[in-house]
Design a protein that fits this description.
216 residues; alpha+beta; Hypothetical Cytosolic Protein, Chain: A; 60s Ribosomal Protein L30, Chain: A; 2 domains; four-stranded mixed β-sheet; three-stranded antiparallel β-sheet; 9 strands
């Protein structure tokens, strides 16, 4: 089963309409898709922020789906000739890692993100944690110990320790906790798309947290 297929379905919110994937035909919540537009020169470009003008061409944030994307599929949906640069999945993955890293850095600078096992444990025990972050290449035992302190809370595990570290100004970071609910929701939105592309959609256990997502 693909990562996008494994994602839980939710009733759409007014600020979060569903869209149909032009490749798979599936109707999914907007945060489970990547929006593309056709640039004036005819090139298909990803609109990860959802702010570019033009008709949106929506594709599931799913490695298997995106791997079979080609210019012909986009041209059929756009009803105009288009060009598509090679390496679509790799380029999207890199761009989403940058976006997620930017949000983590923003959370860190604002004081809404703590890193390190002991600081994360304190935040979880105090009830101030809105999101647990775990490096996907981190040791399972440390992750399990933190997970046990908030077994029903949301968790993100789509970045490597080096990627988390780079986002927060360290060589590596294995554990993190976001303490601001709205920032946590935005981070989860980006993590869901990156997880789909990497084939490991993050587990989300808190629907109310998702309702705080920035609809932009």
């Amino acid at each position: 089963m693909s990562a996008a297929a494994a994602m839980p379905r939710r009733a759409p919110r007014r600020a979060d309409p569903e869209r149909r994937c032009i490749l798979s035909g599936r109707v999914l919540p907007r945060e489970a898709l990547i929006r593309f537009v056709v640039a004036p020169g005819g090139e298909v470009v990803a609109d990860l922020a959802g702010k570019l003008g033009g008709r949106g061409l929506w594709v599931a944030a799913d490695h298997e789906v995106l791997a079979r994307a080609d210019a012909r599929a986009f041209a059929r949906a756009a009803r105009t000739p288009v060009t598509l640069a090679p390496g679509l999945v790799a380029r999207l993955e890199a761009a989403l890692v940058r976006r997620l890293s930017d949000y983590l850095g923003m959370a860190r600078r604002s004081g809404a993100l703590v890193v390190g096992f002991e600081k994360c444990r304190s935040a979880l025990k105090s009830g101030t944690a809105a999101l647990l972050i775990a490096a996907r290449d981190g040791a399972a035992d440390g992750r399990a110990k933190l997970r046990a302190l908030a077994p029903d809370g949301p968790e993100m595990a789509v970045l490597d320790a080096a990627e988390i570290g780079a986002a927060v100004g360290r060589d590596a970071a294995v554990h993190g906790v976001v303490t601001d609910a709205r920032m946590a929701a935005v981070i989860l939105r980006e993590a869901a798309r990156l997880g789909g592309i990497r084939g490991s959609a993050p587990q989300v256990r808190d629907e109310q947290l998702l309702d705080n997502m920035d609809p932009s």
